[in-house]
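Blinded run. Sample ID left blank on purpose so nobody reads anything into the name before looking at the predicted structure. Input follows.
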Amino acid sequence: MIFSEVLDLAAIAPRATATDKRQVLALIADIAARTFGLEAGMILDALAAREQLGSTGLGRGVAVPHARLQGLDRVRAVFLRLEHPVDFASVDDQPVDLVFALFSPAGQVGSIHLQGLARISRLMRQKDLREQLRQSKAAESIRALLVQDLRQTAA
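Blinded prediction complete.
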């Protein structure tokens, strides 16, 4: 999995605003629908169904919502930097302001989805990177940080 091919510039919202978890998921679904050419309602339903199984809030202000989607031809991602943190029922009870959503094709066989989640989780544990992402105000700089660090953590 090459993350520079997974995270499009159009799928990054550097100054997103939401007041709760449901709005965050809806914003992700809207961005994903526009970027991936899919239906927002279907994406939101898939994200909400996954959240029903347990929160994807990892802690340290980070959440990694994810889903497998019908009609998706490859692994894709959406990234949000929230202007104001929201409660995401994270494991550390801290609000979330960095959201890295991962989507895989529904019929994809293998562990690519799980490998992607693990890679994102390792990446987002880096305190310096989280702080740089929080300071970034442009999609280009956010993408550059993520693609560079994802390439380094791929090994």
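Unblinding after everyone has recorded impressions. The first strand starts at residue 12 and ends at 16.
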